[in-house]
Amino acid sequence: MSTQPTHFALLARLLHWLMAIMIIAMLFIGAGMVTSVSERHEWLIHLHKPLGIAILALVIVRLLVRFTTRQPPLPADLPSWQVMAAKASHLLLYALMLVLPLLGWAMISASGEPVMLSTTLQLPAIVPADAQLFAILRKAHGYLAYLLFLTVLLHLAAALFHGWIRRDEVLDSMLRGRDRG
Ligand code: HEM
Ligand code: HEM
Asked: What is the pLDDT of residues 33-83, one digit of tens each?
């Protein structure tokens, strides 16, 4: 029987950290967009749309990597509620990484505006133009973005709890892998 891996695959780790930076940036860019009424901050929305669609493309690659590579097991002595919390929160993170960009794309489609990623790159509309649908999608995108914010904060706290307090292998398995013992 093959031994359990001690760390996430290199590609999984690269995607995790690249996407962590992109997603945290997106949360601040999004919040900056809606809290600013100045025309001078238009550049934030021009950044938000292509970066969000890049996240959508990357999460698809990431899920393929997830299903074709092996993950290190959680520490055997971890209480079962923490195992469940880890699994549920990872599932929620994956779901939000997939759903949020789709909601953003659908929201602009429903507004009836062309979905422009740059001055020349246009995406097709994925839902028909409809003011009521636009209002629902806009609310859903906003609420779920803040749910992602909260989940990322809990995820960060859990990672630091493993790295600094429990001092187990979990944080290391996403950073650089462990020596096989
Ligand atoms: C992981 C990807 C994404 C994240 C984390 C994210 C996050 C956010 C956040 C935090 C806000 C502010 C919400 C509020 O306070 O109402 C926001 C607003 C917005 N997002 Fe995203 N977003 C993502 C993807 C996208 C994509 C792909 C698009 C479009 C192609 C998009 C279009 C918009 C628009 C138009 C708004 C302004 C909505 C309004 O005026 O209320 N987002 N986003
Ligand atoms: C802010 C800094 C972050 C740190 C320190 C961190 C740390 C970690 C660590 C240590 C793991 C491994 C957990 C395990 O072995 O089960 C992990 C997994 C994971 N992280 Fe993060 N993370 C961060 C940000 C993010 C962000 C922003 C996202 C996405 C929104 C994210 C999504 C995930 C997912 C989905 C997994 C599960 C991987 C899998 O089992 O497929 N992380 N993270």
From this structure: 988 777 767 889 999 999 999 999 999 999 999 999 999 999 999 999 999
The rounded distance, in Å, linking the Cα atoms of 109 and 65 is: 30
Domains of the chain are: 10-171 (1.20.950)
Which pTM value belongs to this model?
0.94
Return the ligand number nearest the Cα of 103. 1
Q: Which two tokens stand for residue 42?
A: 């238009």
Establish whether residue 170 lines the binding site of ligand 2, counting it when its CB lies within 6 angstroms of any ligand atom: yes
> What ranges make up the beta strands (E) of the chain?
115-116, 122-123
CB atoms closer than 10 angstroms to residue 31: 15
d(CA 16, ligand 2 centre) in Å: 7
- β-strand pairing of 122-123 with 115-116: antiparallel
- Closest residue (by CA) to atom 30 of ligand 2? 93
Query: For residue 148, which atom of ligand 1 is closest to its CA?
Result: 5
Least distant ligand from the CA of 93: 2
